[in-house]
Amino acid sequence: MRAGSDLHLELAGPGSRRATLIRAVRDAVRDGRLTPGTRLPPYRSLAADLGLARNTVADAYAELVAEGWLTARQGSGTRVAARATPVAPARVPTRAPTRTAPPAHNLRQGQPDAASFPRAVWLAAARRAMNAAPSDAFGPGDPQGRVELRRALAEYLTRARGVRTDPGRIVICAGVGHALRLLFDGGVLRGPLAVESYGLGFHRSVLAGASVRTVPLTLDEHGARTGELADLPDARGVLLTPAHQFPTGGPLHAERRAAAVDWARGRGGVILEDDYDGEFRYDREPVGALQGLDPDRVVHLGSVSKSLSPALRLGWLVLPEHLVGPVLAAKGEREAWTSVLDQLTLADFIDGGHYDRHIRRMRQRYRSRRDQLVAALAEHAPHITATGIAAGLHAVLRLPPGTERSTTKAAAWQGLALDGLAEFRHPAATMPAEDGLVVGYATAPDHAYRAALEALCRALPPL
Q1: Which of 196, 220, 361, 410 is the most buried (most CB within 10 A)?
Q2: Across the chain, what does the average pLDDT equal?
Q3: Nearest Cα residue to 128 out of 348, 456, 363, 353
Q4: Which pairs count as long-range contacts for 26-35, CB under 8 Å and 24+ apart, including other chains?
């Protein structure tokens, strides 16, 4: 506790003010609120805070020093004395909580390499953004998001993803999950909603929480069969991952992209495009955003959770013009989710070219990780095929029928965290189930990645 720090003491009970102060300090030491070595405020400061005479506090300190509760040294102030008997905590749990030991290796999907976050460059961008920020940036946040970030995103998404937009059609949010809540909890859109037969369970949970019924579309090697939308008379929307189907991999075929847009136009519906890792591609040409085909029928959803870090909680909706007002009404009068300072920092990070450089650097790193995974399989499990590896941060390992559950158990025995393909299957999907593993090759740190791949290969079923 620094000099001048606050000290809460209950001055109650019988006796003089000096006696009650002494008793309060003893109680604070006994119950652990004042730990050994804690520096107490100067007696003048404490007297002013408690409304006591200075001499009263000085005398109380002197008596507590004499009793051994406190120590006083010139230049060091008054501190709680080191006690021979440890102070018992105020409340002792009757039973220690049980904790599951974390896995030794992590190959879960959906997370970038946390160790590669560009700390120094981000910090420099934060300093520049702070120095350049106008005074209104430190007031209540605009629910649409800082215009500096919306301008930067409009330029970047147009250039890098083929999105057609302007800053006025972008709303900043805390991620794709938050975007879905704004759209459906806020009543901007209503269900039923068509979705892909395999997808992120978290998104289905968000939609279920908003009382939205989801209807699965069949998947094959060309992505979702969007022609099936015509057979869903109640659906007015569809959620797709067209650049890289999650989790099976592969882009949505051009004919099916066009079919989805034609359906939305004819039905008066809307397409939700989750562009969750569109920047990361390795062995294929870039696949532009579906939104570029019809900005008035497609809501483009994105975030920095895969490209930078999920800890930033920064995402965006690129909206048809007629949905901007309803989304802002659902969001409320003030920004309650995303930090204005983080928004300004990201704007500087993008405008300065640092985001593009980071993406290029991570693209090379993740490609190397993917190549190591493919090489390990070729050497130790050549009968296991990896698919969906031309882009993204994960691969799907196709397993022999009936082996997925036993393989995930074997992986757990190897201390390996990963996901089975069945975890992402829609409960109402009618297409035949396949056995597989969804292996994220971005999550494990560099020094542990080889060991994680070795554990994976030991867990895979033999030929």
Answers
A1: 196
A2: 91
A3: 348
A4: 26/64, 26/69, 29/69, 29/80, 29/83, 29/87, 30/87, 30/88, 31/87, 31/88, 31/89, 31/90, 32/87, 32/88, 32/89, 32/90, 33/90, 34/80, 35/80, 35/87
Please say whether the beta carbons of 290 and 244 come within 8 A: no
Q: What is the model's pTM? A: 0.82
Query: What DSSP string runs through 419-460?
Result: EEGGGGB-TT--SPP--EEEEESSSS-HHHHHHHHHHHHHHS
Query: What tokens does 371 get?
Result: 């190549």
Only one residue has tokens 């057979």, namely: 231
Q: What is the pLDDT of residues 60-113, one digit of tens each?
A: 888 888 888 888 887 778 888 886 454 454 454 555 555 556 889 999 998 899
Q: Which helix (H) or strand (E) holds 240?
A: strand 237-240
- Over residues 439-450, mean pLDDT: 92
Q: Which residues fall within 8 angstroms of residue 101, CB to CB, at 6 or more apart?
A: none
